[in-house]
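Worked example

This section walks through a single chain of length 294. The input is the sequence exactly as stored; nothing has been trimmed or padded.
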Amino acid sequence: MKRTLFMMCCLGITIISCSVDEEATTSTTEDTLTTLETQLIPDFPNPENDYTRQGLYQGTIVTQDLSFHEKITLNLGDNGFYNARIITSDNQQYIFKSQNTIEDSVLDFEGDQGTFSVQFLDDNSVSFTNVIIHNKEAVATVFKDQSFQRMMPSLGSFSSTDNAITGTWDFTFSPTSSLGYSITTTTIFINQNSETFVLDISGNYQRLCSAPGTPVPIGVVNSSFFNIQSSNNVPLGNSDLNFTFVANRLEATNVGCLDQPSTDLNITIANWSWNGISGTSTVDTSSLPDFSGF
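Given that input, the structure is written out below as C-alpha cells.
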C-alpha cells in the first residue's frame, strides 16, 4: 500500500512538472511568434514588387465615431508574409494576420483588436471592407508604397464653422529630390455620412536650410525653415472643394539644420469651403515625416 501511494505521489509530481513546463514553453513560443510577426513587416518596400499587387501599402484607419484614428501598414506578400500593423500614438502595436495569399480574391485579416478584409479593384488599388476595430465599424485607405515613391501618411482632421460636420483629413506625403516632400493625395472621411473621399491634390512640405532672406537672430549661424503649403480646387461629390493649408516654423540653431520638424508648426491658414459649407482643418504635426533621409 505504501509503495502504491509513493508511486502515485511521484506520478502526480511528474504531471505537475510537465504542466508547468508546457505552459512556460507555450508562453515563450507565443512571445517569439509575436516578435517574429512584428519583424516580418518590412520597413522598406521590395523593389521587385513596385509594379505588382504584392508589396507594402501605407495609409490610415479611423472608426466611424472618430474615437480611433491611426496609421496602418499593410503587407501583401512583400516578403512572402501577409499581415498588417498599426502603431498607435501612444506606441501600442496592433498586429493583424491573414492566411490568404495574393491569389485569393479576398484577403481576410484578424488580430486581437479587430478584423478586416481586403480586395483589389480594377486599377489594382486596394479596398477595405468589413473593418472592425475595438468592436466599432471603421474605414481604412491605403496607397501602394514603392521603393522609388514612398508613401507617408499624416493624420489630420476638419470641422465646419458650425460644427455640423466633422471628420478626418489625412495628408499623404512622398519624398522628392528637392529636399522636401510633395503632397500626393488626401483622404477625407466624413463621419456623419460615413463617406470617404480620396483626392489627388498638389502641395509641398519643405525644409529650407539657412535660406537667403530668412531672418536669423544675431549670433546664430544656421536656420531651418519648415513649411507646408497646399492650395487646391478639386471636385468632391456635387461641388468643388476649395482649401488652403499653410503651416511653417523657423528653427534657429548653431549646429546646422535639424532632421526633425518642430512639433509646434504654426498653422497660419487652414480654410476650406465646399457646397456652401466652410470650416477649418488641422494636422497632427507629430505624425509628419522627418528629414533624416535628406
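What to look for: The helical segments are 2-39.
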